[in-house]
Amino acid sequence: MITSLIRFSRRHLIHTLIVSTQNIKPSFPTPSHLKTYNLSVCDQSMPNAFSPLVTFYPRASIYHSTYDQMLDLKNALSRTLTKYYPFAGRHAKIAPTFVDCNDHGAEFIEATVDSTLSDFLKNSKHEDLDQFFPFGRTWSNSSGHDRLQSDIVIPLAVKVNHFECGGLAVAVSLSHKVADAYSCVRFVSDWAKMTRACLRKETDEVRSINDPKFISFQNTSIKFSGFSLETSNDCVTRSFVFPNAKINELKVKVKAMTAGSGQPIINPTRVEVLTWLLYKCSIEANIKNNFGSFKPTSIRVATNIRDKMIEQLPENAIGNFLTGMEVQTTTEMDLKPEFLIRELRNQKKKIQSIKNVEAAFAPLLNNTSSSDLDLEELQRKFENAYLCTSVCRYPAYAINFGWGTPVKATLPGNMRKNSFLLMDTPNEDGIEVLVCLGKQDMDVIKMDPDILSIANIY
Prior knowledge:
Layout: E1 3-7, E2 13-24, E3 36-38, H1 41-45, E4 50-57, H2 66-83, E5 91-92, E6 98-100, E7 106-113, H3 117-123, E8 152-153, E9 156-163, E10 168-175, H4 181-200, H5 204-207, E11 213-214, E12 235-243, H6 244-259, H7 270-289, E13 297-304, E14 317-318, E15 322-329, H8 337-352, H9 357-368, H10 373-384, E16 386-390, E17 408-410, E18 419-424, E19 430-438, H11 439-445, H12 449-452, E20 456-457
Parallel strand pairs: 7-9, 11-14, 13-16, 16-18
Antiparallel strand pairs: 1-2, 2-7, 3-6, 4-10, 4-17, 5-8, 9-10, 12-19, 12-20, 13-15, 18-19
């Protein structure tokens, strides 16, 4: 058994204790013709990282014992893995090209926490969430745990954390080489539906699960060893919560700012105006901390392409179906909303003109077939850019295992430096943005009047 510590700002120590670890295998073996799942070129180009998600639930009074509750979770996970068979397989740690769907299973870990759920949510900092994840698997695959020193990666690991009050934190880590954040949320949602079916002993719940679609790709290697979303010791992540009413005020402000520019922004979206504001304020904070010196940079916005191409993918398509929209900022004039939002819209139109997923992935395949130089250049651009990802409208707050929807759903700890992650608030009455910046830049942006006027910072 392993003990880990969570430090609260009030210096109270919270202990988590791992009490069990086991492999959960699919309830039925994967058919022989599906034993090898080829990774797409987009999968292969993803960072060596994990898509993490944690959901928090109060005590479920419908169970006689925790044992019964965990039994339903495990049985449901086993049945769900039959549908999500690559998640129960194994892939190489370095430059994987396929998943061996060998049914070895996902790891299921249980731990206890000597705190109540309400105390934790009230007193914790964002980085404290890391302790709830299996082996600390959050954004990178660098960990001191022996299981992660192997050349083989277990794509899926789950850790269920029991609070003293009976509440739970269900944390999931999914290999980014296999699937993206959308896929992760969809998997957990389907696992939750299956758990409800086990609880109620009903088959209608199972029938309501739209089986995931794993698209078949030709075996291809782009000869790219990958890169990690390593966190930095000099960065911090904080939660910025923007109520819808304040976002609407920001929309009005953006329309007014751009009206006289000759390039008015009509009907800006919530994500557009927040992306602009956070990027602008972060750059200005960095300038202030560098004695007024501006350095050219860029912002890369990750985009889910499933519903944006001419030949759309089904919403249950599982994998990495992403592209990045990049806007260069060469002068401080480029921080104006009309420039950034217009450029993002232009690039979105280009994505909407792509015929299908094969055409979307073709440039990546063509650029890397002769050498890995282009991907190395992509990595350098990635490391020097600000990153923005929106998971708004992903139904994380609808994940119901049979004991109600989560009181909180979020992603853990320190992300990659200079990144923003946007997600809906619990009642969809606003947007929560996880902002990761260097400590000095964070100190400045937390005092920025443009931010303080519309956001609550935690």
